[in-house]
Amino acid sequence: MQKDEFIQLAKKYAQNKCSWGEQQAVEEFFKKLQDNGQVIPYTFTDEKRNFLLKKINAKIGKPKKRILPLYSTALKIAAIVLILIGIPFLGNSLLKNENISVVAVKGEKKTIHLPDGSLVFLNSNSSISYLKDFKNSRELQLTGEAYFEVVKNPEKPFLVKTDKITTRVLGTSFNIEAYKNSRTKVSVNSGKVEVDIKEISKKIVLTKNQQLSFIAGSQAVLSKGNSEDFNAWTRNTIVLNNISLGDAAKILENWYDIKINFSNKKLKEMTISGKFKDEKLSNVLKSIAIVKELEIDFLTKNQILIREKQKK
């Protein structure tokens, strides 16, 4: 990363506009600056601090609202912007810990071997991101669904962050489903995990065959089930366990890269159960249609309409 690129990144950080990966890169840079003896001069008088704040505000184009706390991270990072302008850039030696992202699009699944030896099975329409120096941080960000087999390391917990929860483990296997605008679920196949739910400031410990379900604006629900069903998707098996037809449609959309519409909202509330291994989409939809007495119309190759069966 070049000097100008990092200056722009530091500005984004000061404005709280960084992605998770960018934030990690900036904070790691700041840490290494201090480790290498490049101390940021934030122990100055109020007069000097106010002068620096004016400079910072001018650089990031942000109106001054108040004096930031003396040890504000944003102040430190913005100070780096000013310092970088006047000192040799250390990016080549300090910013080797770049962010790595892996994406599985709809209709695709991926297996990721992490640097610490842990395995991640990434479901369709999902992504993870983590630092290249993963052995030291053992922390990653997840959007969508993934199954983890974590190598045990008591000294370095394994953290999985989503927009709603943080899951902490030492060594275990578990599944996290965290698609946007959907219920978040954490299921344990072996070992023990701790789930920190940000919205309700609550930590819940899960063990084998337990599943935690949470949706914004409601309480978390803890239930028991078959751990083999929780991660059946890793074996190309779709498990529909008494879920709404609307939720089943979302699973099929990700699995087969299609779009399912309903002729009316009432149909989405119907419940369905079933298990399909390595089945073609047409066979899955045919089974659902027979069980629920529905009609399936293929409008196009990827556009499907589910409607009520016409009475004769």
Automatic annotation (TrEMBL):
Keyword Repressor: no
TM spans (from-to): 68-91
Record Pfam families: FecR, FecR_C
Every Protein FecR C-terminal domain range: 238-306
FecR protein domain boundaries: 106-194
Name of this chain's protein: Anti-sigma factor
Top-rank taxon, per record: Bacteria
GO molecular function: sigma factor antagonist activity
Entry keyword annotation includes Transmembrane helix: yes
Keywords: Membrane, Transmembrane, Transmembrane helix
